[in-house]
Amino acid sequence: xxxxxxxxxxxxxxxxxxxxxxxxxxxxxxxxxxxxxxxxxxxxxxxxxxxxxxxxxxxxxxxxxxxxxxxxxxxxxxxxxxxxxxxxxxxxxxxxxxxxxxxxxxxxxxxxxxxxxxxxxxxxxxxxxxxxxxxxxxxxxxxxxxxxxxxxxxxxxxxxxxxxxxxxxxxxxxxxxxxxxxxxxxxxxxxxxxxxxxxxxxxxxxxxxxxxxxxxxxxxxxxxxxxxxxxxxxxxxxxxxxxxxxxxxxxxxxxxxxxxxxxxxxxxxxxxxxxxxxxxxxxxxxxxxxxxxxxxxxxxxxxxxxxxx
Length: 309
Fold this sequence. Notes:
This protein is of the alpha/beta class. The protein folds into three domains: 12-78, Arc Repressor Mutant, subunit A (Orthogonal Bundle), CATH 1.10.10.10; 94-171 and 279-304, D-Maltodextrin-Binding Protein, domain 2, CATH 3.40.190; 175-275, Periplasmic binding protein-like II (D-Maltodextrin-Binding Protein, domain 2). The chain has nine helices and 13 strands. It has helices spanning 12-24, 27-34, 38-52, 69-93, 112-126, 139-147, 209-219, 233-241, 291-303, and strands spanning 57-60, 64-67, 101-108, 130-137, 153-157, 165-173, 176-180, 190-191, 200-204, 225-230, 247-249, 264-269, 277-284. A five-stranded mixed beta sheet has the order 4-3-5-13-6, with helices on both faces. It starts with 11 loop residues before the first helix and ends in a 6-residue tail after the last helix.
């Protein structure tokens, strides 16, 4: 077992004050959040900088504080240390039934409506003292938040995942074509992208979905005629319902009508037979999961076991 050679020259309280100041952007806002004086926050920041022998932020009266490159790196590590300290306290206090605290969860935009309510309700019922705060966003934004320590976990598609991100697969989904109910191919069991090549496409333009859709078309030897772009899943469905084009999507809601009540139909894609996209749970590879995060990972694996389409 590796032995500790030196006692750290900084305290968890100093890290806590630094994280609050970095997140709030000003000393006064951090003091209000922590219910301490501004001088206490300033003193803690100064002591932390001296202990680490590095300048963490630039303080300007009219503009608050700005993190230095070193401060940005320390912020990420400080968040991780504080989470581990909280986890240690909870582990010592009792068993998993006593799990408590905050879990910061991210979720890709189009997955959120079908994934988040289920997970928040079920995990909340099992661990009522855990508070889950969620953030919706694109994959690149969510991965940045993970690596910055602002999120504990994120539900993502297995697309353009950074090497610094660890992951566990949850389930798989097959891409499909969405057509208006009166489309000439609506009665077919499956549809070929080549049969739609001369028709307008509604592109879900929320990275990496747009990149993924266009790549699949290219691999199938089809150059789609993109007529409309939208970052909204439901707007894409609504445009299809109005007959303004077809869409390639992965999520398949139980409801086969748009917000306007217009019918749409989902069709398998013949060129993509056997192809599926994984939905996964991700976290920073360099970060040890807290007990809350580990329990959430285990819960998600339990909930989605055997669930693919």
